[in-house]
Amino acid sequence: MKRVLLSIIATISGTLLMAQDLSQFKALDDSLFLNNEAYVNGNKYQRDAMLFVDMLSDTHPYYIKKERREQLFAGEKALLAKCAACDNDSDFVSLLIETLGDLHDKHTDVIDLKQLNEKRKAAQQQQQALDEPSDAVMANWGDLFHYIIFPERQLCYLQFNQCADARTMGNEYLPRWDTMLDEMFAEMKENGIKNLIVDAQYNNGGSSMLCDELLIRLRPFEQLRTLTSSLRFSRLMGAYNPRIAIAKQSWEADGHIDELYPMPAGAVGPDFVQPEVFEGNVIFVQGEKTYSSAGILMTLARDNHIGIIAGSNSTFSPSHYGEILPYRLPNTDIIGTISCKFFARPDAEHVDDKTLVPDVAIDLSDKEELWDEILKIIDNNAKTSK
User: Fold this and answer.
1) Residues 68, 110: one domain?
2) pLDDT tens for residues 209-258?
3) Co-location of 244 and 113 in the same domain
């Protein structure tokens, strides 16, 4: 069964789910509600609110537990009362976002297209600000990644701004992350570098493959503890691939009611060669914008005891949700995304933590001062290691 499921899931996780064409977002099926008097007589916001709550309870891994679903449905009456007085899409979106409560999952969202356009304009303005040159080492230089060697301090600074490169972006003119890492670590060895700074304060994610390629250069692959993932079968997932409905019935028929489906661990390829491992000191820098795959990098660094983390408290949960399914509410045409997988951190004792607290808290706003603070950490490490 697992071999078949992997094929199905691979199909669902493909380009369809990342499509920019909003017409490809599947509308939630309301066939189960056509005999529901409250649904039939409700306004468009009440009808879509009912579908939204039902989808949350059936799709998101957080609601695999019965008591959590009961709590969700307990608040539905109040939500519908608010929707009865709702007269615009923006207010309706706000009500649905309130319903998400403490999920702490940025991948699960409801999208107001008006607000989305405003955010895009703000992002463009922010990018224009980044285009203004800055000599500060830890300012955002606006590229995917780069490194600087400081031989006199036995230090390498790596700015990792996005988990993307020529391979993941399908653009041969972009740099390759693995090639850059080979060059960087070779130059570090040649210069006797003993300290590495991995600055991910601007990195909001991308492909976790790039994080893995860095981690295996900091700890042997066979020693790395990684995330475990579990899948939630749902009707929405079945809308993208009908075979999921069959898999869901089979899984539950085997007695796995209210249980997530454990995904098999990834296997290393037959051609894998362990890179030389850096034995020096590592400092990771995280900020409010560190998220998704970059957040996984921080979590795995912590749980594998690789270096220390400096910066601010994370906005991501170390154990988190992902693998998004897009959806459309049929009565209002409001769109959104919802996670269908749960990724558990290796440290089982802290699996439910909501944030990753840095080992050293640092103000990230002043980049010149930030650089000085990072150098102080390195100097203190050198003193304590003597």
Assistant:
1) yes
2) 999 999 999 999 999 999 999 999 999 999 998 888 888 899 999 999 99
3) yes
Same-domain check for residues 40 and 55: yes
Let me know whether 69 and 163 are in one domain.
Answer: no
Distance separating alpha carbons of residues 65 and 230, to the nearest angstrom: 14
For the entire predicted model, the pTM comes to: 0.84
E strands, 97-235, where?
A: 109-111, 145-150, 155-160, 195-199, 228-231
Helices (H) and strands (E) in the chain, counts: 14, 11
Distance (Å) of CA 210 to CA 172, 176, 205, 292: 16, 10, 10, 12
Q: Which amino acid is at 302?
A: R
Nearest to 160 by CA among 279, 280, 309, 284: 284
How many domains would you assign to the chain?
2
Residue 18: DSSP 8-state: G
What H or E segment, with its residue span, contains residue 73? helix 66-74
Q: Coil, helix or strand for 23?
A: helix
Closest CA to 328 of 86, 48, 98: 48
Largest CA distance in the chain: 75
